[in-house]
Every structure is written in structure tokens, then in C-alpha cells.
Amino acid sequence: MKFYISALVLLLAPARVTGSDVPHLLDTIKSVVSQYYGKMELECVSVSEGSSYSKCPTGYTATGCSCGSACGSWDIQSSNVCHCQCANMDWTAARCCRMKLP
């Protein structure tokens, strides 16, 4: 996504920009970016594993975790893995989300 925004800026920016062109250029960039982000959707899935860890599918980010055995201590590792910190966990669930175009 960063690549697309960078490419957009490079395409819209003329080789030589004068001071009076800057507001127009910024308005154009804001317009295109808002159209692009306006089409984005949040897609979420739940993943459950029978251990202390639950990993999100590729491209998804863990946004929250849930643990079995009444364990309320968890953390998110590497942005996509839920880890329940209690001993002898019977299950761990991760709520995983990503932004996507429709």
C-alpha cells in the first residue's frame, strides 16, 4: 500500500513545482487518496488453536486474543500471533483483521 501511495505522489508531482502550484498539488493528492481509502473495507476472521498460540493467516494482523481455562493474560507477538500466558492452555483464539479493496 505504501508503494501505491508513493507512486501516486511521484506521478502527480511535476518535475518542477512552483510555490503557487503546491496547494493545487496537495488538493489533488488528498482527493485521490481519499477516493482510494474510501473504498477500503475491514475484513476480520477468528482463528482458534488447541495450544497457547494462535497465528493469523498471512496478510492479517491480530487485533485481540481470547484464552481458555479462564486465563486473562495474553499478548500479541510479531503483530500476528496471539499468545496466552497461563500454563496448560487448552485453546487460544485470535481475532485477525486486514484492510482490503472490495
UniProtKB/TrEMBL annotation:
Gene Ontology CC, one term: extracellular space
Keyword terms, alphabetized: Disulfide bond, Hormone, Secreted, Signal
Entries under SUPFAM superfamilies matching the protein: Resistin (SSF111423)
Keyword Secreted: yes
GO MF term set: hormone activity
Signal peptide range: 1-19
One matching Pfam family: Resistin
Coiled coil: none
Keyword Zinc among record annotations: no
Domain of life: Eukaryota
InterPro entries from the UniProt entry: RELM (IPR009714), Resistin-like_sf (IPR036262)
Location in the cell: Secreted
Protein family (similarity comment): Belongs to the resistin/FIZZ family.
Protein name (database record): Resistin
